[in-house]
Amino acid sequence: MMNAAAQALDEKVGKVPVAQGSTRPATSETEVMRAITWQGKKTISLDKVPKPVITHPKDVIVKVTACTICSGSDSHVYAGEVPDTSKGQIMGHEGCGVVSEVGEAVTKFKAGDRVVIAFDIACGECDYCKRGEFTGCDTTNDSKLSEFVYGHRHSGIFGYGNLLGGVPGSQAEFVRVPFADVNCYKIPDEVPDEKALYLSDVLCTSYHAVMLAGGVKAGESVAIWGLGPIGLCAARWCQIMGASKVVGIDFVKERLEVAEKKLGITVIDRNSVKDVPKRIFELVPGGVDASIEAAGFRFPVSILHKVERTVGLETDTADILNELLLATRKWGRVSVIADYLGYCNHFGIGMLMMKHLTLRSGQCPCQRYFDTVMDHVKSGKFDPSFMVTHRIKLEDAPEAYSKLFNKEDGYIKVFIEM
Question: Closest by alpha carbon to 165, among 132, 138, 185?
Answer without folding.
Answer: 138
